[in-house]
Amino acid sequence: MLNGFVSVNGELTGSSPLMLVQLANSGLLPAEARLATRQDLEAAIFLDGSFLRGNYVDFGLALRTAE
Question: What average pLDDT score do residues 9-35 get?
Answer without folding.
Answer: 78
